[in-house]
Amino acid sequence: MNLKDLNNLRADTEGRIKAVFLICMFVLVSAGGFAQNTKSISGTVREKGSNETVIGATVQVKGTHNGVITNENGEYTIKNVSPGQVLVFSMIGMNTVEKTVGSQNRIDVLMDAGVLIDEVVVTGYQTQRKVDLTGSVSSLSSDQFMQTNPLSLEQALKGKISGVQVMNNDGAPGGGITIKIRGASSITAGSSPLYVIDGFPLPISDDPLESPLATISPDAIESISILKDVSSTAIYGAQGANGVVLITTKKGSAGMSEISVKATYGISKLANSIPMLGAEDYMRAYMRDMIMSGRWQNADFYQEYKDQIWNTNPSRFQFYPDLCLQNGTKQNYEVSYRGGTDRIQNSTIFSLMNEDGIAINTGFKRFYFQTNNSIKLLPQLTLNTNLSYEHNIRSGAFWTEGNIFNEIQTFSPLVPKEWTFQEIDDNLYYTGKMDNPYRKLKDIDYSNKNNTFFGQAELVYNINDNWFVKGGIGVRIPKGEVKEFIPKTIQRGYDNNGLATYATQSGLNMRGVVQAGFNKVFNKVHSLSVNAVYEANTNKYETFNQEYSQFNTDLGWEGIYDAKSGNHVKSPGVSYEKIAMLSGVLMANYSYKGRYLLKASMRADGSSKFSPDNRWGFFPSGALGWRVSEEEFFKNVSWLEKNVNNLKLRFSYGQVGNDQIAPYAYAQTLSSSQRQAIFGDGAIPALFTSRMANPEISWEVTEEFNGGLDLDMFNNRLNISLDLYTKTTRDMLLEQNLPRTSGFGKVTRNIGSVRNRGFEISVGGVLIDKKDFTWNATVNFSSNQSKVLSLGAETQMLEGRPVGSASGSENVLIKKGYPLGLFYGLQMEGIRSNWHSDYNGIGSADSPWWYATEREMPYGFPSFADTNGDGKVDMSDRVVIGDVNPVFIGGLNTRLRWKFIELAMDFSWSYGNDIINGNVYNLMNNGDIRNKSAVYYKDAWFANNPTGTFTGPGAIDWSGYMWAASNSEMVEDGSFLKMNNLAVTFRMPKNILKAWKIKDLALTYTINNVFCLTNYSGYDPEVRSGSSVNNRILPGVDISAYPYARSHIFSLNFKY
Question: Which terms are listed as keywords in the entry (predicted)?
Answer without folding.
Answer: Cell outer membrane, Membrane, Receptor, Transmembrane, Transmembrane beta strand, Transport
